[in-house]
Every structure is written in structure tokens, then in C-alpha cells.
Amino acid sequence: MGLPRVIERFVTNRRVTLLGVGPMSVNCVDAAIELACDYAVPIMLIASRRQVDCAELGGGYVNNWTTEEFAGYVAARDRKRMTVLARDHGGPWQNPVEIRRGLPLAEAMESAKRSYAADIRAGFRILHIDTSVDIHGRPSAEEVLRRVFELYEFCHAERSGSAARWPSKSAPRSSPAWPTPWPTWSGCSPGSRPSAPRTACPSRTSW
Fold first, then answer.
1. What is the pLDDT of residues 188-204, one digit of tens each?
2. What single-letter DSSP state applies at residue 53?
3. Which of 26, 41, 113, 131 would suit a FRET pair with 48, their CA atoms being 20 to 30 Å apart?
């Protein structure tokens, strides 16, 4: 039985939510994997970009792991394949390097895409798309959502191996047009809209 089916049955049959553990240290990661395997319970290891990021972007502060190294470490120890790799707070300016360099929007979005691409290649199953941060100002709610759509599209295209066909949409434009239907927002009712950028409900997409 595949992991998605295991998770579905676990959540449905036991009427519980899925625990997400932040990989704050090697000991924390080891403990989560051990518990998941010993009790046959699926547990998410959900890493922020500050904790773990791809080699191209310098890795993260947890054990100096890159995305690739982190995924390999977990895979080598997860003997029952009960651990779910997940990304927390992906998106532009979510990596400290992007903030220190003061990257403009287009470059910050491309950096976020490289991070997501590494996540997908490494076997991450859940991606949190968070475009609420902007070091250059306070974007409108529509702009926050526009960035979500761009990253949402990219991740799905990358998953199907067709990301190269999707041009960047972060360059200035006079009349942006965005696809429908809209993604479902985590924590929001379908069709709802945030009242301000900082309260925008970020999207989570999974496979």
C-alpha cells in the first residue's frame, strides 16, 4: 500500500490529524522517524527553507543539511516508509540569503522555484506555498495571490516534468491574466479572499 493511501486510512479510520514535526535537530529527526516506524504511524517532517534548503541555495541551519542530504538521511532510516517529507513556508524571501542580498521580486521567485524543484526531485510530498513575505513593501492581496498562482503552476508543471514550458510571470506586466479554477487555500473556505497580504491563507499542494 502506498504512503498516500496509508495516510488516508490512518486519518479517516482514527479520525485524527497528521502530525507535522519541525526538523530542528538531528535528534529530533531521528526521534520522529523512530516513532513513525515503531508505531506504524505516518509523521510529517516539515522543514522551512531556513532549516533545510537545496545545495544551490546553501542548505540550512539544521546540521548544515541540503534538501538532497536531508531526504537521503531520512530515506536511509525510515525502514517502514512512514515518514512524509514536507516543505513549510516555501516562497520568495523565505531563505535568509534572499533577504541579505535584497533580491528583487523576479529573482526571489526564481530562487523559490529552484528550491521547490529540489523538493520535488527529493521526494517531498507536501509543499506549503507562502508568498506573504515581501522585503520591499506591502503588496496588495491580489499580488500576493498572483505569486501563489505562479508558484502553484510551476510546482505542478515541475512534478509532471514540464516546468521548462512555463515562463516566469514575475516580470512587470500591464495586464496579468491568471488561470482558473483557483487553488484551494489552507484554512480558508472555498472562494474566500484575504483581507490583507499578511492574512492571506497560503496554499498547500500535495501528491
1. 333 334 433 333 344 56
2. B
3. 41
For the segment 85-126, what is each residue's pLDDT rounded down to a tens digit? 999 999 999 999 999 999 999 999 999 999 999 999 999 999
The three three-digit cell numbers of residue 2, written as one number: 502506498
Query: What sign results for the dihedral spanned by CA atoms 31, 67, 123, 101?
Result: positive
Closest CA to 36 of 21, 51, 17, 52: 21
Long-range contacts of 30-34 (CB under 8 A, 24+ apart): 30/77, 32/83, 33/74, 33/77, 33/78, 33/83
pTM flag (> 0.85): no
Facing residues of 21 across strands?
A: 45
Which three-class secondary structure state does DSSP give residue 127? strand
List, in order of start, the domains of the chain with CATH numbers.
3-166+180-206 (3.20.20.70)
DSSP single-letter state for residue 39: T
